[in-house]
Amino acid sequence: MTQTPEDSDRTEDKARKIDPGSVLGALALPVFVLDENNRFASLNLAAEQLFAASAATLTGREITSVLPSDNPLLTLVEQVRRKGYSISESDITLESPRLGHISWRPRFRRFPKRPTP
Question: What is the pLDDT of residues 54-104, one digit of tens each?
C-alpha cells in the first residue's frame, strides 16, 4: 500500500503535536536535570515523588536542599560531569530526614551545554 501526500501530512501533524514535557511527565522513572551549580532545572512527576516536593518548589534550589551533601548521588553527578559519559549504578540509597530511606537504581547522562545565541 502506498502512502498518499495527505497521509504523510497527517503523520507529520501528529508528530508535531507530541509535547516532550508530557512524555517526560508520563515516565514512571524519575528524571531530573541539574544545572552547573547542582540546582534543579527541571523534574518530571516521578522525580517530584522521589524528592517529596513539587517541581515548582524544587526548581532553582540546590539538590542539597533535599539530600545531604555526602550522598552518593552527588558523587555520581560529579563523576558524569568530569568524565563526560553515562553511568548506570546498581543501587544507591537516598536518605534524609525529609525522604526517609529509599533504595534507587539511577542512570546518569551528561548533556552538552547549549550554545548561547
Answer: 999 999 999 999 888 888 888 888 888 888 777 666 666 666 666 666 666
Listed residue (106, 108, 50, 32) closest to 77, CA to CA: 108
Helix (H, G, I), strand (E, B) or coil at 21: helix
DSSP state, 62?
A: B
Phi, psi of 57 (to 5 degrees): -75, -40
* CA–CA separation, 73 and 76 (whole Å): 5
Which amino acid, one-letter code, is at 38? N
Beta strand 40-43 with 87-88: parallel, antiparallel or unpaired?
Answer: unpaired
Distance CA 58, CA 35 (A): 12
Tell me how far apart the alpha carbons of residues 39 and 29 are, in angstroms, rounded to a whole number: 20
pLDDT digits (tens, 9 = 90+) for 8-61: 566 666 656 788 888 888 888 888 889 989 999 999 999 998 888 999 999 999
| DSSP H or E segment with residue 10 | helix 5-16
